[in-house]
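Researcher: I'd like a structural prediction for the single chain below. Treat it as a standalone chain; there are no partners to consider.
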Amino acid sequence: MGSYYSVGAPSASAGFLMQPESKIKIGTAALYASLEHTSWTYITYEASIGLQAGTSFELGVVDSLSFVMEPTIEPLESANIADATIYLVTGEETTVEVGIQQFDTRTLEIAMSTGVMYALGNERLITFGGGCTIKNRPLSIESGNVACDAPTSPNVSNGITGIVVTLYDVICSSGLPWDSIVAGEISVIDLTFEARPVLARARGNRLGTIYVY
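Model: Treating it as a single chain, here is the predicted structure.
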């Protein structure tokens, strides 16, 4: 053992191990027409958790799913200080990447971004090319922890029961990359949704929320 400092064994907290079973939802309309805005958290902090009931659709079973919030942090250049001590956040790129397997026409319409969808009875027609309006929607990822040691009731001091990621306003920046059209396997389209800031909200609350319970 050290004379001045002793190292102990790490703490193993099984309740914090996360095996997320996730539901991905996209709003059927932009911003507050789909985004939750009546809860206590919204009234108190203007922080939405999830989407309103009946104003979204699910992506269903997906091939892949990832969420990335990546700030761009750069040093402040100075002529009279050799080593930078001040750093600035010059950007915050927040994206959701998902490999869809269910070809819901509403998902295809959003992926085409400026396309227009027409209802033909029980069928749909989507035109694309030359449009000016980019479709923007809120998006949520609702993940329940299915790990065996997850807490039976919410208590973040003991572990994680679930996590809800809510992005206030996203656009599909990937387009429709349907790279492999084959009959021998289930087709997958990898979509990228990029969050845009809602400038009407306060700084620090313009892209979305992560609710942990």
